Protein: Serine protease
Amino acid sequence: MGVTSRFARLLLAAVVAATGAVAAGVAQAGAEERIVGGSLANIEDYGYTVYLSTQDGFQYCGGTLVSQDKVVTAAHCSAGKAASEILVVGGREDKDSVEGTVSPVRGIWVHPGFTDIRSGADISVLTLATPMPYDTAPLATPDDTPLYRPGVVGVILGWGRTAADGAVSPQLRRASVPLVADTSCQQAYPSFLPASMVCAGLPQGGIDTCQGDSGGPLTVSGVLVGVTSWGEGCAEPNRPGVYTRVAAYADELAAQI
Ligand code: ARG
Structure:
């Protein structure tokens, strides 16, 4: 994708934000109080969205297909695990269905700097044994600073909890959240590290990723800018979601992909 078309799509995202798409999202979250994540999504529209499951079929994290056999996820979803413990499921919207592709994992790369979610480097690349025929998402690079501007609207996707104390979703869900300025995120979380993390959410809360969404995508204009990592509670006011800043790891990711 050329820089020009990325910029055009970014403008579109900004215009959508200005015309009230975020306000509409808030109204919806208010009307259905327990929803953290907006609405049902079609896997055809977000083919790059995959999930990680145990061999028993328990979905515990999300991921993003970035090439036919590489998935970007969070380090805390894969660190300390053997490849044989993880299955990657692509092309499946409903976890109770058998649609799509289930692939064993052939290799796990965990960022060597990863220790725990609050210290950054929460990023990992899985190599699939079975390539997947779905859309892939391009990775953000240091040239993509416009995609990280505060107020730019990102899309979050996953099968995680629909309330902080609720159950995970059987169906893929999506929501739109504006990116938050590093200075405000620093105020929300003293442990926020702007060089390796980026925040997204509304000051009043109501829309957020939650447990089970980790490892999944935060995209802006279809570009992977963040990986769901952590947050205090889910969708709480002044507690935005924290995402691994993908552009900060562009070189290391490129070497794996
Ligand atoms: N750590 C969580 C997971 O493993 C993701 C939490 C995201 N939390 C948030 N408030 N955005 O699924």
